């Protein structure tokens, strides 16, 4: 994990008058260091050993705060749990229909989609999201 990214993000939180607690910093570092797209429960399970008195509500509250500040992105895909993503660059997601695995897709020209949409519709585009669904390589092996 890049310490510079952690430090930059902590500075952003401080500028927004967010108090940096050990639990909050641990959630942030976990989100920056993971390549998965965890649910709040996944984050809780990963940190429970270090913070036995921390509740799932604390995790949710911190993830909501980070989302509101634009530090992480909340991803809702129609299932019961939101997934969260720390991303410095815009990207798409491929989602396995069997196991729910989410993989980042970086595609050049991503910003062009918003410009084209704005030009075609006249909308003032504020963002977009694209999901690619399929069966991941691991799940494909299970059915062979």
TrEMBL record:
Binds 1 Mn(2+) or Fe(2+) ion per subunit. Binds 1 zinc ion per subunit. Its main location: cytoplasm. Fe cation binds at residues 111, 128. Zn(2+) binds at residues 96, 99, 136, 139. One of its GO terms (cellular component) is cytoplasm. GO terms for molecular function: DNA-binding transcription factor activity; transcription cis-regulatory region binding; zinc ion binding. The keyword Coiled coil does not apply. This is Transcriptional regulator, Fur family. Keywords: Cytoplasm, DNA-binding, Iron, Manganese, Metal-binding, Repressor, Transcription, Transcription regulation, Zinc. One of its GO terms (biological process) is negative regulation of DNA-templated transcription. It is found in: Cytoplasm. The lineage of its organism: Bacteria, Bacillati, Bacillota, Bacilli, Lactobacillales. Its cofactor is Mn(2+); Fe(2+); Zn(2+). Belongs to the Fur family. The keyword Repressor applies. Coiled coil: none annotated.
């Amino acid at each position: 994990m890049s310490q510079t990214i952690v430090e930059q993000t902590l500075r952003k939180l401080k500028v927004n008058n967010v108090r940096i607690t050990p639990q909050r910093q641990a959630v942030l570092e976990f989100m920056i260091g993971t390549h998965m797209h965890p649910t709040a429960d996944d984050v809780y399970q990963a940190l429970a050993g270090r913070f036995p008195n921390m509740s799932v509500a604390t995790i949710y509250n911190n993830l909501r705060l980070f989302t509101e500040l634009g530090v992480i992105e909340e991803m809702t895909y129609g299932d019961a749990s939101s997934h969260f993503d720390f991303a410095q660059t815009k990207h798409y997601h491929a989602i396995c229909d069997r196991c729910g695995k989410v993989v980042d897709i970086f595609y050049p020209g991503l910003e062009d989609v918003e410009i084209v949409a704005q030009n075609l519709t006249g909308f003032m585009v504020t963002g977009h999201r694209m999901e690619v669904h399929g069966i991941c390589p691991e799940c494909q092996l299970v059915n062979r």
